[in-house]
Amino acid sequence: QVQLVESGGGLVQAGGSLRLSCAASGGTFSRYAMGWFRQAPGKEREFVAVIRWTGGITYYADSVKGRFTISRDYAKNTVYLQMNRLKPEDTAVYYCAAARVFYSVYANQYEYWGQGTQVTVSP
């Protein structure tokens, strides 16, 4: 059974950095797309970034492009989201997700989700 466990969230001042981790287990991820989504209070879950496990193709939401970097470590079966120059509007619960598609920005195409990790950016 596929399990995704996020870590690395926390409280940071605007302009600071955080690195989120998503440890994946219970599956063969070579054919998966691994995505990061976020959900702020009162808002819908939104796409942040995606990486193709094999080949490393990446895609980002316009709101984070140039500030966030998604990557993966084969040996550790872990996906990362490096977040730099954080803004208060980045405050949300961040979720890792896995989908058996080439890649996708649509949450409803992701089959597996982690429990989420809170990121809070103070002004």
Give the gist of this structure.
The protein is mainly beta and 123 residues long.
List keywords for this structure.
mainly beta; four-stranded antiparallel beta sheet
Q: What does this protein look like?
A:
The protein is 0% helix and 50% strand. The mean pLDDT is 95. 33% of the residues are buried. The protein has no helices and 11 strands. It is globular and about 40 Å long. Strands 2, 4, 5, 6, 9, 10 and 11 form a 7-stranded mixed sheet that branches. It has 123 residues and is an all-beta fold.
Mean pLDDT level:
95
- Identify the overall geometry: globular
Please report which band the strand proportion falls in: under 5%, 5-15%, 15-25%, 25-35%, 35-45% or over 45%: over 45%
Largest sheet: 7 strands, mixed
How far apart lie the N and C ends? 40 Å
Let me know the number of strands.
Answer: 11
Structural class of the helix and strand makeup? mainly beta
Order of helices and strands: EEEEEEEEEEE
